[in-house]
Amino acid sequence: MTPHRMRAIKAALTTSCECIGIYRSLTLCADSSAMRIVFLLAAAGLAAPVPAIAGNVNVRVVDVNGNPVVDAVVTIKPDAGVPAGPIRFPWPNTMVQQNIAFNPGTLIVPVGATVTFPNRDKVRHHVYSFSRPAKFELKLFARDESRSYTFTSAGAVALGCNIHDAMSGFIRVVDTPFANKTGAAGDTRIAGVGGGKARLTIWHPRLKSKLNEITFPLDVPVNGDIAKRIIVVLR
Question: Taking residues 137-158, what's their average pLDDT?
Answer without folding.
Answer: 98
